[in-house]
Every structure is written in structure tokens, then in C-alpha cells.
Amino acid sequence: MRGTELKDGQHSTPDPSERSQLWPRVLGSLALFGLLIGLMIGRLTNPEPARLDNIEVHRDQLVLWFNDEPKVHAEVVEGTVAMLFDATGAPASGRLL
Q1: What is the pLDDT of residue 27?
Q2: What is the rounded average pLDDT of the residues 47-57?
Q3: Domain locations in the chain?
Q4: Considering only CA atoms, which of 41, 48, 66, 55 is closest in space to residue 92?
Q5: Strand bridging mode 61-66 / 50-58
Q6: What pLDDT is attached to residue 24?
Q7: What is the pTM of this model?
Q8: What residues does 57 pair with on adjacent strands?
Q9: For every residue of the chain, which 3-state class applies, written as one string?
Q10: What pLDDT, on the 0 to 100 scale, is given for residue 87?
């Protein structure tokens, strides 16, 4: 065919309606890909919180073992010094084994 005019019910170029159906799929694929990449980057930049692994009692001291260095904050509460560690651990109901 030399031109874009209709000959025998066929065009030399596809209908615009067929082309426009692909554009939302492309945009949806790009959005999904961007979301997944963003989630992976967020997971890499946000490490897991420190965890209390073990507590040992030695003479005149208490030794705490963490899997990573926790954030520490000290406060004076009614004349005593309280050390606050930003970490998680298994509940022991206030008992030291």
C-alpha cells in the first residue's frame, strides 16, 4: 500500500485504539518495578534492631551480650542511675537465669 487510505478493509498502520491499550500496561509495569526497587532499598538501609542475646552474672557486675551495638541512654531516677538500651529480647518475667 502506498498511502494510509482504506483498501480492502485494511490500513497500512494499526488502529490507534490498539496502540493506546499498551500505554497503561507500560506505566503500570514501571510503577510496580519502582515500588519493588524502593522496598528493596528501604530494607537495605533500615537494619534490624539490636537484640539482647545473653545475660551473664559475674562478681559485682552484670554482663549483657547484644548482637549489635544498641543505642544507650542514661537517666537519674530518684537518686539511682538507669541505663536504657534500645534493644529487644526474650521476655523472662523479671527473672535472671
Answers
A1: 93
A2: 85
A3: 1-46, 50-88
A4: 55
A5: antiparallel
A6: 87
A7: 0.48
A8: 62
A9: CCCCCCECCECCCCCHHHHHCHHHHHHHHHHHHHHHHHHHHHHHHCCCCEEEEEEEEECCEEEEEECCCCEEEEEEECCEEEEEEEEECCCCCCCCC
A10: 87
Collapse the DSSP code of 2 into the 3-class scheme (helix H, G, I; strand E, B; otherwise coil) and give the result.
Answer: coil
User: Strands 80-88, 50-58: parallel, antiparallel or unpaired by DSSP?
Assistant: parallel
Among residues 20, 41, 39, the alpha carbon closest in space to that of 31 is found at 39
The count of residues in the chain is 97
What does the pLDDT look like over 1-17, one tens digit per residue?
456 666 666 666 665 66
Mean pLDDT for the stretch of residues 49-59: 87
Q: With CA atoms as reference, report the closest residue to 97 among 66, 59, 65, 54.
A: 54
Give the residue carrying C-alpha cell 545473653: 54
Computed over every residue of the chain, the mean pLDDT equals 82
Q: Max Cα separation, the chain?
A: 99
Do the Cβ atoms of 86 and 71 come closer than 8 Å?
A: yes
